Amino acid sequence: RNFTAKKLGFKKPTNNSIDTVADRDFALDFLSAASICAVHISRLAEELIIWNSDIFKLINFDDKMLTGSSIMPQKKNPDVPELIRGKTGGVFGTLVALLTLMKGLPLTYNRDMQEDKALIFESIDTTLSCLSLLPRLLLTLKLNNEQAATIASSSYSTATDLAEYLAKKGVAFRLAHNIVGNLVKYCEKK
To answer: What is the DSSP letter of 12?
Structure first.
């Protein structure tokens, strides 16, 4: 084993030959990292979809990143972020599939383990394609500053700042929170 390890360029042989052929932790670690990456990409895509919606109108995507609706001529679908968000489930699926594959196997190598490669390659392809689309999507979107200012000024977004200001002036935060909450209620009524 020492001779073989040296000829292959390894520092030393593995400590446990059973673990050497039975372990897929490296693959599970990769699929876990890809899944975590997909979560973050998906959450960003979800925000972009919401911000682009007719309700918020905080951003506009370049027409190259949109498709038309099959029935509504005026509608532009944010397909790129929707597809990024949707692909996340497949990345999760590769992790769950390998965990499920490994959980029932006895130690040492089993032919079932050859299925890990397809799962890893699928996860790589999906994650990389989503990561390559995201910068193109972000670089082409336009911010709607007027709409952002309108939303910010109509939502009491500075209420927390006011409560913190009062707390810095010596008012207990619990009381400051109550004062500002009552002030917001008053403003909403008026």
So the answer is: S
Residue in 99, 96, 101, 100 with CA at minimum distance from that of residue 115: 101
pLDDT, tens digit (0-9, with 9 covering 90-100), for 15-46: 888 888 888 999 999 999 999 999 999 999 99
Q: What angle do CA 96, 137, 40 make, to 5 degrees?
A: 30
Closest residue by Cα to residue 56 from 86, 78, 79: 78
Residue 69 gets which letter from DSSP?
A: -
Average pLDDT, the chain: 94
- Give me the helices (H) in the chain, please: 2-7, 17-22, 25-52, 79-103, 116-140, 145-154, 159-168, 173-189
> What pLDDT does residue 69 have?
86
> Rg of the chain over CA atoms, in angstroms?
26
